């Protein structure tokens, strides 16, 4: 019976290639019925219908909508854009899932930072927190805090939860559009100093989540910390950008606050919650506080994850820059 129950996917109206949309496509390819939760009935919703998904139009912050969307579903994937109401939305979905009572899995798209932001670290004296986080930041962004609270809510709910804590995506705006201008001039300008990162391709995260949703039993109550396959510094990333763009690209390190003022503040002036998250992330990475690498993604996928270069080759903004 549960095999034919639709799998509920939130955030499904994201662009093609986005995590939720890719999960929808993968599950449909495997023959699973999918119910896609979207905010508006627009062209993206129609594209989901054409792909074979059932579309539910509603608001993740309205409990009546959430409950109606969940009806008949036993497997849930929860994701939501950066929002000051993120914890509210997770809590409402958890409340609806508890009320329904027959959930097989609740896959929660979380953040990699949750793997090292423990209660003990969060409640340490400010100077200790700052030192632990690299020296440029002492506290989480509101969005990072929201993910921490969301994980606690799901823990307390008793739902069969799987937390997917993905590292920074290759497709993150920090890497792919906030500083596109300098890339056009052959410069990768980022405020990350000499620190090394292993960013992850959104496609790989989607495939891992689809695998969990298709066969949840082995994953219940686990939290996965997922990185990309390559740990490299910004000079290495500059080589990747250069290979994809077909031109020489040189890494030019920038001071963190100068970069935030130059790129984040103007681009995200109308979205203060998102801007604060991005600025906190640059401080965390720029100070060396974004730590840890695992091979859990390779294990989940059963193959080598996509490289940064491979992910950039499929990114629309980067491809447009390359052909322009």
Rounded to the nearest angstrom, the distance between the terminal CA atoms is 52 Å
**Structural shape:** globular
**Helix content range of the residues, please?**
40-55%
Give the helix tally: 16
| Rounded average pLDDT | 94
Model regions low in confidence, pLDDT < 50 over at least 5 residues: none
User: How can the largest sheet be summarized?
Assistant: 7 strands, parallel
Rg from Cα? 20 Å
Order of helical and strand elements: EHEHEHEHEHHHEHHEHEHEHHHHH
| Percentage of β-strand residues | 5-15%
- What is the topology, as strand order, of the major beta sheet? 3-2-1-4-5-6-8
Number of strands: 9
What class would the helix/strand composition place it in? Answer: alpha/beta
Summarize the structure.
This is NmrA family NAD(P)-binding protein. This protein has about 325 residues and is α/β, with parallel strands linked by helices. The protein has helices spanning about 20-30, 45-50, 65-70, 85-100, 120, 125-130, 140-155, 175, 180-185, 200-215, 235-245, 255-265, 270-285, 295-300, 310-315, 315-324; strands at about 5-10, 35-40, 55, 75-80, 105-110, 160-165, 185-190, 225, 250-255.
What attributes characterize this protein structure?
two-stranded parallel ribbon; 47% helix; NAD(P)-bd_dom; globular; NmrA family NAD(P)-binding protein; alpha/beta; Ergot_Alk_Oxidoreductase; 16 helices; NAD(P)-bd_dom_sf
What does this structure look like?
This protein is α/β, with parallel strands linked by helices and 324 residues long. Helix content is 47%, strand content 13%. It is built from 16 helices and 9 strands. A 7-stranded parallel β-sheet has the order 3-2-1-4-5-6-8, with helices on both faces. The chain has a two-stranded parallel sheet with strand order 7-9. Helix 3 (63-70) crosses helix 4 (86-100). The protein is globular and about 55 Å long. The mean pLDDT is 94. It comes from Streptomyces camelliae. InterPro entries: Ergot_Alk_Oxidoreductase, NAD(P)-bd_dom, NAD(P)-bd_dom_sf. This is NmrA family NAD(P)-binding protein. Residues 17-216 form the NAD(P)-binding domain.
